[in-house]
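task queued by scheduler; priority normal; single chain, no ligands, no partner chains; default sampling; output format set to structure tokens
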Amino acid sequence: MTEIPSSQLIKTAQAMNSGGLNQGTSGNLSVRSGSGMLITPSGMEYTDLEPEDIVSMDFEGIVSPGGGGVQRKPSSEWRLHADIYRQYPQANAVLHAHPVYCTALSCMSKDIPAFHYMVAIAGGRDIRCAHYATFGSRELSGHVLEALRDRKACLMAHHGLLCFEENLTRVLRLANEIEHLARVYSTVLSLGQPDLLTDTEMARVLDRFSTYGKQD
């Protein structure tokens, strides 16, 4: 993987807030870096971040010395990011946020079923909602990894959204797509229960998605 500068991570984190995916200091963002990761610091406004505020750490929680004498604490969800990188070699960027519609559905512990074919963008026939556990805990990480089986996104009960992708651009795009799906699904539920696409049709869509947008 090409080394990602801290400035690109900050720019993407700021886009999470300006685009409505996140508010204030909630949520977190990371990229794989060598044998570890770069991750947003705990409790800092994204608009105030400087490259030296980004935390470099390994997957065991050991933080590398900061530049310019700055040493920030990593996001409280660092363990979740680290476990995803260990579990999924294809994951190079992890995004966690509290967008309104994803969070609303998560507070009802609702999966997003195959009400629309674009649900397949997360890698399967539905988008699961992981069981609740206290933020930053090993238990939460375990629940999220279970919900991510054969997927690259999930909701987190009473919490928000988690997704991973191969780079920062794609993970931000995926998060926005899923929040849009959550908004549409919430609207559909206000009208009644939707008809769902069959497993056969979703398998067909997933097959199409495997080559969709790829250029020779």
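post-processing summary
- The chain has one domain: 6-209.
- The mean pLDDT is 93.
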